[in-house]
């Protein structure tokens, strides 16, 4: 794979955003996982936030960002893709019904039956590209292109924890009841975030996830 | 130990925020006007980051259940102690049964109560800040309610009878009222150059109105529609408090302390750290103006903010020694 170019931009006085363009690619994301690990231990870096094809770096307020940006370009040239497939987590889903209110409409908009959507959604092994937005929320790569659906024009004010959702070319599971503009196709009882666990977030970047069909309601 | 009599609108326990967990989706939370909370703690001789109460638009009242010393900071809430008016930026000691009452904010948006020793709520992931979205931190992970009892660290209880404050003449910066025009300095971000020079000039010359639907998550602004020269579909990336996003509506939204850690809307810039406390005090419906600065300028401003807090610490140290 040829390494895609990166763009580095300032995010305020003490942060840099390093990113590459889409579409979502696991090969590119592996480079960002590797970059995240390296940057975590750089002097002056106080926090890293992994995104999809991106990494936000927060620096000590006294750090010189111009020097850091040049160093990042060098690091990008040097790193290789992060290895490791992570754990495989199974997430049983009740598709449709009250907990999956957009399923029928989403199927209709793609000219598919409900059964076909369920089959296409539960077939792939997804990869956790990054966590964010809300505690423990996974950005999942691997959605079948036939299910890619632009986000809702206006977000819902309240989407329940455990909602299985699609936003653009990404899949996800709502980890904390919150507003969201993604389409809800089902619900799971698996908890993606639980402070009583030693690791509150169930998933880590690089983990794999499979949705299994628990039930389908029209 | 104090008992909340009335909580006002969404009063929460906050410190200077939770850092280091954005990579699992946990935002920073913390005091919206971090300068006010720091000053309140400094007045009491607390650590800068001790936990205090943030009251939005006033309306909070509480009763002391034992001798406590508190500091009042931030917005002018027309606070009273047993009916007697308390000045802004003031330290006083309460005896059991005494009641401190905030009225409705007259100027500014958020008033702060710090307490000698800090409020004793459990540390969750390294901070006592309330994460309302996550439902953890602070007092049971939620806004304060009538009857809630908050305690202080026993070792730090301070029964001395203190009664002093800051004078507006010596510290005029602290008396900015937030109801007129607030200037925010910002460092341009990646998509800033997706807008024509005219559109960028429009952004900086417009007096933007803060919409009523603004809160700890974000500030929505009303003004002319900002149209980019290219429409991009961005992948989700890390964002920070102060990030000025431009959703398809063409009206800016400034992400605040309870915002998501990751977002995908184009961003014009990031409001400098030192100006976020001033934005937190700007009243709904008031006007904002933006001024472009470099990251280096912003770092210099931040150092001056730290100097202010240090100067207040020095100037008031003899009063705390009693």
From TrEMBL, chain B:
Transmembrane segments: none annotated. InterPro entries: CT_A_B, Cyclophilin-like_dom_sf, PxpC. It holds the Pfam family CT_A_B. Keywords: ATP-binding, Hydrolase, Nucleotide-binding. Residues 23-308 form the Carboxyltransferase domain. It comes from the Bacteria. The keyword NADP does not apply. GO terms for molecular function: ATP binding; hydrolase activity. The keyword Nucleotide-binding applies. NCBIfam families: urea_amlyse_rel. This is Carboxyltransferase domain-containing protein.
